[in-house]
């Protein structure tokens, strides 16, 4: 199933770069989320329709109620994330958003009282140092900037992941993927209606179609990968996407990082890779005990 993870990495990087290009064309970020989200939901419905559990539980109100909190968090993630991508570099955005991988277990420890490996704390310090070197500002969370919005995106993605874990006990992954994307598109679309000043409402069919296929494909590949692979393995391999985005943004948009920023990016990626290697080892030890 590493092919599914590789597919997710390529699509995540591709949709990030495509969204940056659409924003460079002054298209409203939340209009893009609305149209591509609705189209992606339709594509997922077609792809998952043959599965009996999908058809049977699609309109189950209990299922939708279980998914609702994660839909709210992914909506906030879209609101912050696409605004961040409009204001900062694609490289900064993907690196800061990816710190959600390290933030999730800390929030799970605080909210769900899950055990946390104490080896995480030096890695948190390393990530914070990397963020400072990348952004050049210790006051990141207090400033309204593209980088601070990307940090808020990481927070909402982490909360979304925690509630996904709770909902997955009752809800199949395919239903989760469909309803999260659809509800998020509708909620973000409501924000689009009251913020016309943020960009043009323009049907860039190639770009919007690409975003829809990207969103649908990411949900499909994630659902397939997580069915047979541990979360730690998935998170370890998707650290390739920031590297892919950074290299592509250099050639496509002329994004360049200074020497200090490159060191900061290395601290962030290195810390995330180390954390996921630790999680992978924990998973292997747990399997061995069983």
Automatic annotation (TrEMBL):
Pfam families: EamA. It is a multi-pass membrane protein. InterPro entries: Diverse_Substrate_Transporter (IPR051258), EamA_dom (IPR000620), EmrE-like (IPR037185). Residues 5-135, 145-274 form the EamA domain. SUPFAM superfamilies: Multidrug resistance efflux transporter EmrE. The chain crosses the membrane at residues 27-49, 70-87, 93-112, 119-135, 141-163, 175-195, 201-222, 234-253, 259-278. It is found in: Cell membrane. Its main location: membrane. Keywords: Cell membrane, Membrane, Transmembrane, Transmembrane helix. This is EamA domain-containing protein. It comes from the Bacteria. GO terms for cellular component: plasma membrane.
């Amino acid at each position: 199933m590493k092919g599914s993870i590789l597919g997710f990495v390529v699509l995540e990087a591709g949709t990030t770069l495509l969204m940056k290009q659409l924003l460079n064309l002054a298209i409203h970020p939340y209009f893009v989320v609305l149209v591509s989200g609705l189209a992606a939901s339709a594509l997922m419905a077609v792809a998952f329709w043959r599965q009996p559990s999908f058809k049977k539980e699609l309109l189950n109100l209990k299922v939708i109620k279980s998914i609702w909190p994660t839909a709210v968090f992914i909506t906030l993630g879209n609101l912050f994330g696409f605004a961040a991508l409009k204001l900062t570099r694609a490289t900064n955005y993907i690196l800061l958003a990816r710190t959600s991988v390290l933030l999730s277990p800390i929030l799970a420890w605080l909210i769900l009282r899950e055990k946390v490996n104490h080896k995480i704390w030096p890695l948190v310090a390393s990530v914070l140092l990397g963020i400072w070197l990348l952004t050049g500002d210790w006051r990141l969370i207090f400033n309204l900037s593209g980088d601070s919005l990307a940090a808020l995106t990481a927070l909402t993605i982490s909360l979304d992941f925690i509630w996904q874990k709770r909902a997955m006990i009752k809800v199949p992954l395919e239903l989760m993927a469909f309803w999260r994307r659809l509800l998020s598109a509708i909620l973000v679309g409501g924000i689009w209606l009251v913020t016309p000043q943020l960009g043009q409402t323009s049907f860039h069919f190639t770009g919007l179609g690409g975003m829809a296929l990207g969103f649908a494909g990411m949900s499909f590949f994630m659902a397939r990968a997580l069915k047979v692979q541990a979360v730690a393995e998935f998170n370890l391999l998707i650290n390739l996407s920031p590297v892919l985005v950074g290299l592509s943004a250099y050639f496509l948009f002329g994004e360049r990082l200074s020497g200090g920023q490159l060191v900061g990016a290395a601290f962030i990626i290195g810390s995330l890779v180390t954390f996921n290697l630790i999680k992978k080892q924990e998973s292997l030890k747990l399997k061995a005990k069983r």
